[in-house]
Amino acid sequence: MVHTTRSQPQVHKDRRDYQNLRNMLPFLWEYRGRALLALACLVLAKVANVGIPLLLKEIVDALDKNDQTLLVLPLFLLLGYGALRLGSSLFNELRDAIFARVRYHAMRNLSNRVLAHLHDLSLRFHLERQTGAISRDLERGTRSVSTILNYMVFSIIPMVVEFALVAAVLLSQYEIVFALVTFGTVVIYVAFTLAITEWRMDFRHTMNRLDSEANSQAIDSLINYETVKYFGNEALELRRFDETLGHWEDNAVKSQTSMSLLNFGQGGIIAVGVTFIMVLAANSVVAGSMSIGDLVLVNAFLLQLFIPLNFLGIVYRQIKYSLADMDLIFKLLEEQPEITDAKDAVALKLSAGEVRFEEVDFAYQVERQILYKVDFTIRNGEKLAVVGHSGAGKSTLSRLLFRFYDVRDGRIMIDGQDIRRVSRSSLRAYIGIVPQDTVLFNETILYNLAYGRPQASREEIEEAARIAHIADFIEQLPDGYQTVVGERGLKLSGGEKQRVAIARVMLKRPRILIFDEATSSLDSKTEQAIQETLREVAKDHTTLVIAHRLSTVVDADRILVMEGGRIQEQGTHEELQELGGLYHQMWQLQQKERQALEMMPMTDSVT
To answer: 510: helix, coil or strand?
Structure first.
């Protein structure tokens, strides 16, 4: 058995780390004052930190002199030493407290922008996306902003400031060889860290890809829980998931072992550099060119530099990983919506509510055309039905009218206005859709009803429920309107979900209604009840009904029969029956199927 998985690009091949860091700056701009204040506290903390070894040198030299100032001067210096330590701690904590708002607000802004962008992307993107992978990429990407800011402000910048201060002291007070050896060691350390870490990045990127893939597989199998059970394929799903995790595990082990090599190399470089500098300092003390206090000062500087430097590899790796995660988010933000408002788009001005398709051609893919020269009008208050076999292009009409896609040729007009020239928000505000598969939020019935118009009053919501004939059912529930419907509304039956969908559409108060096979998945009794409700709510509305079952549209003012993306016949039910064409054949076939179903219980009772 061959299993195929959707290939994912190796994003690290064309990452743009510098550009992504620049893209992050606008998210900090709102709190730029806080950021600058935090940086000022950072500099003050490092000034105090570098001042500690300098004061320690003076204390040691003062004690070493053993003269009459012994009881006065060291006490003053010791008090200063304590004050510097206190100041270093104080400014570090102030920096953390002040910068917290900057960091977490940047995460919040980025999360909001990504979600808004995802909602703005076109239906085609969402039909092709993998929910699990997008969810994991979003989680890692927003977290990467916090990680980068954390390491930049709390590790990288403090280290650079401290290095600059130490360099100033070493170059001004000691032989240049001390500065050369100290920073030569740093250069070698950084070069080694960069080289090894870049080599290790492939493992991390592969881990990220496999992690997203495994997460997507797990979520997909849970979403399709019933299908998995129907076919007894639990083992198949677990095996597919485990195979992906197995590849992830191999790369995780390689990443960990290569990190051990990196850590050992870093430790070796630091050990050699520290030993060399201590030998130089000790020789200078013996030669009399340096005091014992100078030796203590150099040693303290080394500890202050190399102890945090020991974590540079970890910091660098985390920043690189975070940049890789951030790259996924910014590439997602660069994804262009397929459908956008025209630059000169105006709000739709609805008067009569007349809808017209003029010679519309459409294709989801260039090589597979769906609609051919479709031309019809739905007049104000008219109920127009579109019927046909599966794949005839019926549901495509509603997607085009709602402007999930744009026509390839021809145009769609509402009251004489091309829908491509009006804003999407104004267009969609006037259209209400009851889809075939109603998906509800895992929230209360009240929340799902109010979704049609969130600002509606409780009385208006209950009135919409009564219109949809679901109010009595809701009131009989133990929790009433506060009943949680479950994920995708699975705690409700198909008919109950459809009534909720009808109620929230009515609460929206649209002038144009679309029923897209709204009863095709229901049993006959429930279908008849829902059809009666639909007839009531469609009064005085421009209504498009897309249906497979012809019995649901016999009362339509006009019926279009589609086949192969073209309108083959049109007229009332009676006219089409008299015509004896495609509609008549479909009607006869469905009537025979219905009679066969009605006969089945009788046959069972005889046997």
So the answer is: coil
CB 421 within 8 A of CB 348: no
* Backbone Cα Rg of the chain: 36
Of the candidates 431, 398, 399, the residue with the CA atom closest to the CA atom of residue 415: 431
Report pLDDT digits (tens) over 124-169: 777 766 666 677 777 777 788 888 887 877 778 888 888 888 888 8
pLDDT in tens, 321-331: 788 778 878 88
CA 91, distance to chain mean position in Å, is: 36
| Residue of 134 and 467 predicted with greater confidence | 467
Higher pLDDT, 332 or 407: 407
Helix, strand or coil, per DSSP, at residue 323 = helix
Enter the DSSP assignment of 381: T
d(CA 247, CA 251): 6
Residues 452 and 506: their CA atoms lie apart, in Å, by 8
For residue 76, which amino acid is it?
A: F
Cα–Cα distance for residue pair 309/303, rounded to 1 Å: 9
Question: How many other CB atoms are there within 10 angstroms of residue 193's CB atom?
Answer: 21
What pairs with residue 388 in β-bridges? 562
pLDDT, mean over the chain: 82
Give the residue carrying structure tokens 């309108």: 567
Yes or no: say if 506 and 534 are a contact pair by the CB < 8 Å rule.
no
* 361, 408 Cβ separation under 8 angstroms: yes
Q: Which domains does the chain have, with CATH numbers?
A: 17-334 (1.20.1560.10), 436-509 (3.40.50.300)
Q: How far is residue 520's CA from residue 99's CA, in Å, rounded to a whole number?
A: 56
Q: How far is CA 215 from the centre of its chain?
A: 14
**Per-residue model confidence (pLDDT) at position 412:** 95
Please give the C-alpha separations between residue 458 and each of 450, 454, 537, in angstroms, as whole numbers. Answer: 9, 10, 20
Q: How would you classify the pairing of strands 566-571 and 558-563? A: antiparallel
- What does each C-alpha distance from 29 to 22, 35, 145, 156, 234 come to in angstroms? 12, 9, 14, 20, 50
Closest by alpha carbon to 195, among 313, 92, 281, 290? 313
Alpha carbon 42 to chain centroid, angstroms: 33
Pairing of β 383-388 and β 558-563: parallel
Cβ–Cβ under 8 Å, residues 299 and 140? no
Spatial separation of the C-alpha atoms in residues 522 and 534, rounded to whole Å? 14
Please answer whether residues 559 and 573 qualify as being in contact, where contact means their C-beta atoms are separated by less than 8 angstroms.
yes
Q: Which tokens belong to 195?
A: 């080289």
User: Are the C-beta atoms of residues 549 and 579 closer than 8 Å to each other?
Assistant: no
Residue 112 burial class via C-beta count within 10 angstroms: exposed 0-12, middle 13-18, buried 19 and up: exposed
What's the CA gap between 589 and 189, in Å, rounded? 80
**DSSP letters for 268-317:** HHHHHHHHHHHHHHHHHHHHTSS-HHHHHHHHHHHHHHHHHHTTHHHHHH
Q: Is 415 helix (H, G, I), strand (E, B) or coil?
A: coil
What single DSSP character describes residue 232?
A: T
> 290, 283, 295, 137: which is closest to 209 by C-alpha?
137
pLDDT in tens, 179-213: 888 888 888 888 888 788 778 777 877 887 888 88
